[in-house]
Amino acid sequence: MPTDGKGVSGRKPVHDWLRDLDISFVPGPGSQLxxxxxxxxxxxxxxxxxxxxxxxxxxxxxxxxxxxxxxPLDWREALLFTARRRFGLDRAPAIYxxxxxxxEQFERVLSRIHAALKTSPPEPDDYDFPGLAESACQVLYxxxxxxxxxxxxxRVIQSQAxxxxxxxxxxxxxxxxxxxxxxxxxxxxxxxxxxxxxxxEIVTRIVTARSTxxxxxxxxxxxxxxxxxxxNLGTPQAMCEAGKQLGLRGFFTETVRIADLVNxxxxxxxxxxxxxxxxxxxWDPTLDALVATVTGSARPxxxxxxxxxxxxxxxxxxxxxxGALVRRIEGRAEAxxxxxxxxxxxxxxxxxxITLGHGWGNGAEVPVVRSKLHGHRGCARYxxxxxxxxxxxxxxxxxxxxxxxxxxxxxIADAFAQAEALQNPEDPRRVVFTVLPGHxxxxxxxxxxxxxxxxTIWETMDAGSLEIDKRVPQGPIDYVSTGDGMQVVPVEE
Length: 493
Description:
Elements: E1 22-25, H1 32-47, E2 51-53, E3 62-66, H2 79-87, E4 94-101, H3 103-116, H4 136-147, H5 149-161, E5 165-171, E6 175-181, E7 189-191, H6 195-210, E8 219-220, H7 227-232, H8 235-248, E9 256-257, H9 258-261, H10 267-270, E10 274-275, E11 279-284, E12 289-293, E13 311-317, E14 324-327, H11 341-346, E15 353-355, E16 365-367, E17 369-375, E18 378-382, E19 387-389, H12 394-398, H13 406-417, H14 420-423, E20 431-436, E21 440-446, H15 455-462, E22 466-469, E23 480-481, E24 487-488
Parallel strand pairs: 1-2, 1-3, 3-4, 4-5, 8-14, 19-20
Antiparallel strand pairs: 5-6, 6-7, 9-10, 11-12, 11-17, 12-13, 13-14, 15-16, 17-21, 18-22, 18-24, 20-21, 23-24
């Protein structure tokens, strides 16, 4: 798509792979403001050449709909669960639900959550929102401490609207601002001071999200790894220890289970019943492959307390790029890797390989990156003398993508390809990281003789050279120098 084409803001760098979309609007319950904004979005989509449909069909990419604020929508009415049956569709389009809230209501509910977050352990009555499960209290408490009151409110609204992708519109008769929510927990804010820019910004974000595709079509390859070979490897136990060490340092957060938020019987057929927080992998020279954590979307896995049953082996990338090639382990049920497996494989392609010295025992040729860590965290500060920061390309800072997508994998691989510390194995910096706005962080380490997998990363954290932050930035990141040589994210006023 040209830089002045579909969904392009004109003032911010955008991705060059955006595509045309078919959009339909199916009004639901909600306010007049929600419907007005939906119609404004339709005009903005059409203005840059996207196609508006009167009724959804099998070509539809996105359905816009509406839902009320503060009132639970019955899942039997929610398009996330009913669109295919209602319109006779062979595939499910993406559903974006618009919910409006007055400025006074918005401030009041944020103040309520802010006050509730001060009480530990959490008081269930403080998190008693209509339509939520009794167990929602703990989830909202944890989400609030991770991203502030707005993230806890996001989970409330998603649960009540029975939708993952939600546009929360703040305003009375006209929009003042809006927040765009997704599964991972992004909450970018869009000001409505300039109405045309406001609608164009939302359109570009939706087009970006819908122009990429998942890369989770993993496939087995080769003969299973024998039990004896697996038992003789040191890597699996080292991975378990790494998970423990990183968990002790607060890198992982608890898995969010949708059933803990809201009772929706149909959820398993429409979205994953849960999503995991973080994944990691390390290279095993004996297997000549990555040992990686398995996906947490099928069953709860806290990555800070894994066992060898929570590991799998990633041997490469499928020829069509749609997923990873996975080696099975004899006597174990098949378990797909975390959704970020493709990014972890792609990362190695543009980087050099090195030959391990005799201190490693086998002199194997391996990727320059030993271990890779992906999590829904940010980085508040780092020491550029010990750690290298490689930014994602500018469009990813303004228009992020999300987990398990081809675009995210490609963007991460491109970022690390620019790392001087990785392109030059002799560079003394042993840790490199990038930040994905609205999503999280990826940290990698080089091979260090005498160190266990991920030890260099956690020791760098302990030394204060890489300070992990609970909050994930929602937009462009600009680190600035301090008097002590550190690079920090400026504190917003």
